[in-house]
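Q: Got a minute? One more chain.
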Amino acid sequence: MTSNPPLPMPYGPPISLELARTIVAAAEREAIKNQWPMAIAIVDSTGHLVLFQRLDQTQLASMEIAIKKAESAVKYRRSTKVFEDMLASGGVGLRALSLPGAIAVEGGLLLVKNDEVIGAIGVSGMRAVDDGQVAEAGVDALRP
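A: Always. Here it is, folded:
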């Protein structure tokens, strides 16, 4: 007997602008603490941009990448690191290349409240692991 995989976390109401500002502020503090020029994007549970912040001297490409990381995370209801790890594993993991809008670089994380996806954060500007660290600082602002 084969068991079915668990259902993905449901989408909830879209994140508020006020909460998005709190999350971006926390992510920005982490970026500034490390002197990393970063772009930080928040999308809501429908995949629409709610808030965008770019620190001085952030590379131009990072603006679009941050938004795309957030969109990818919310559309697929998973961290963009999942896709990065799929590609790194090779073999069947290479199928991630055919998923429309999937960004296979760390830095996109879900924003969850009351066990529902309310949006996602996307960060770009440094190494993928650094982007992930700044995104995680934003997510931490949701925790009590």
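A: The mean pLDDT is 96.
Q: Perfect, thanks.
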